[in-house]
Amino acid sequence: MGKGKSHWEWDMSRQGLSWKAKLKYAIDQVVKESENFDDFLAKCADFGILYEYNPNRGKSGKEYHGAPSEAVGNEYRV
Q: In sequence order, which ranges of the chain are alpha helices (DSSP H)?
């Protein structure tokens, strides 16, 4: 797949049905209500955001079966 959005993904985003757009919106809401990073992680569950955070795991860690942060966007990376 290329660097841009596919037509299907663009159309879903335009209609407000994209999972990426919904996730970005939810993350933005959690950030607005959070006081610090630990508070952010605690409030993610309240907004239905599941995450796997391990600051000690590098790129060579075990295989991850979720959506990588690259799929959502560079501005949503930890």
A: 7-15, 19-33, 37-46, 69-72
pLDDT digits (tens, 9 = 90+) for 28-69: 999 999 999 889 989 988 888 888 777 776 555 555 555 555
On the CB side of 2, CA atoms within 13 Å amount to 5
CA distance 37 to 34: 7
CA atoms within 13 A on the CB side of 42: 7
Which backbone phi and psi does 12 adopt, to 5 degrees? Answer: -65, -40
Residue 9: both structure tokens together: 């993904």
Which two structure tokens, joined as six digits, stand for 7? Answer: 């037509």
